[in-house]
Amino acid sequence: MRRTLQGVVTSDKRDKTLRVEVKRLFRHPKYGKIVRGRTVCHVHDENNEGHAGDTVEIVESRPHSKQKRWELVRVVEKSKSV
Questions:
Q1: Judging by DSSP bridges, how do beta strands 70-77 and 4-11 pair with one another?
Q2: What's the start-to-end Cα distance of the chain, in Å?
Q3: How far is CA 56 from CA 25, 30, 33, 35, 40, in A?
Q4: Candidate CATH numbers 3.30.70.260, 2.30.30.50, 1.10.10.60, 2.40.50.140; the one for domain 4-77
């Protein structure tokens, strides 16, 4: 089963590649405080559909390059700013 994540595009400057941040909340193992974390994923976007600020759904895939291990499934929500 391939993992599916949802995150926000932070960079779309490269051709067919997006930088997506997936935010998560978790409890600190020692102190118990709720901590915000993020995971940065480099995503293969074949048709250059995603743009900065968009919320996207991504899925695990075979390695496309040194850093790209994810593929774009769909754009969930377009960004509000132009």
A1: unpaired
A2: 36
A3: 19, 33, 29, 23, 13
A4: 2.40.50.140
Alpha-carbon gap, residue 35 to 7, rounded angstroms: 18
Single-letter code of the amino acid located at 72: L
- Summarize pLDDT for 17-44 with one digit per residue, the tens: 999 999 999 999 999 999 999 999 999 9
- Model pTM? 0.88
Q: Name the residue with tokens 């409890």.
A: 27
Q: Where are the domains of the chain?
A: 4-77
Q: Using alpha carbons, select from 45, 36, 47 the residue that is nearest to residue 58.
A: 45
